[in-house]
Amino acid sequence: MKIIVKFASGFMGLFDTGASTFTGWVTSIVPKVLLLLILMNTIIALVGQERIDKFAKVCSGNVILAYGLLPFLSAFMLGNPMALSMGKFLPERMKPSYYASASFHCHTNSGIFPHINPGEIFIYMGIAAGIQTLGLDQTDLAMRYLLVGLVMNFFAGWVTDFTTKMVMKQQGIELSNELD
Description:
By secondary structure, this protein is mainly alpha-helical. The protein is 74% helix and 0% strand. The protein is built from 7 helices and no strands. The protein has helices spanning 2-27, 29-47, 49-60, 63-78, 95-108, 121-133, 138-171. α3 (49-60) packs across α4. The radius of gyration is 21 Å and the shape is globular. The mean pLDDT is 84.
């Protein structure tokens, strides 16, 4: 009988933990994302949809801008997960590649810019603690993490771009630029 009671108590504990996590989200990340969406839509309204589309067209014509600069700026300005929303301005064929690059930027840039992804900073801090134990400077680690991230995140987008094109060709999906 004790086993059944213990199992039932543990089972209900899962729901208590889930409810606590959900409440934490409702009071922390959900309002933040909502306000960032409002900010982004306000900026779009002030700047104008035409100019945003023109900027997206410029970015879509250059892989360095599309998978290097735009994801980095989006991560820096909007943080995780809002940085991913900037891909909506790119052509459909580029969205998987943008997502690959931008999602990585939300990780590799957090050492020097912890505001990008504060929920994941514990990973960086674990590595940084080892560096600090060795008597080395954490800033060097953060800068190396950022610089390697800039290169590798670009390649993540670029490689995804190649694979997306191959799959689109295999599936007979037209490789047009929707912003033309």
